[in-house]
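SECTION: protein entry
WANTED: fold as tokens:
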Amino acid sequence: MAITDWPEGERPRERLLAQGAAALSDAELLAIFLRTGVKGKSAVALARELLAHFGGLNRLFAATEKECREFRGLGQAKYAQLQAVIEMARRALKEDMHQGDALSSPAAVRDYLRLRLAHLPHEVFAALFLDAQNRVLAVEELFRGSLTQASVYPREVVKRALGHNAAGVIFAHNHPSGLAEPSPADRGLTDQLKAALALVEVRVLDHFVVAGARTVSFAEQGLL
């Protein structure tokens, strides 16, 4: 049955307008994006299959064009539209961070980092460089590694902080394994970076570990 044949109160678009986007499931939100299904499947049924096939929204966001085109109902045009939506969300969150105190809007920081790092199949170490008022000066991906570790060089981090004339920094890296808890190596590296940056009077304000939908803060866990 096509979605247009459903009772009006059950249609995703009408429900979104009446109740807000937060009331919809992942499949319903994706169905609104898809707009149409394929022969024999509504947009919602197709969305459910997509989420099951890719293993959730994060994996779908990380899918390559080739992987998307292999799935019936998600071709090149839909892939381009999806990437545009994801990038707009990243840029909107980045604007939020640039406009205010990064420490007073932790939700925007976490959401931005999830969109930027959670879907990556390799480990990435990034930094948000902040001024004395904790406003974001720049966001940089500093190092890339394998699935298990990234080589992070404190001297290079110090150089980038000085280059931005930063007063503080927030670090972030992803765990492609899906385990969000900081490892002993993560803690040791953070301590090393904190000591190196203290020599040039740059504060390490937090370090986030991103794994799928989870984001763990060193500061919240008392690890700084």
Q: What stands out?
A: The longest helix spans residues 76-99. The mean pLDDT is 84.
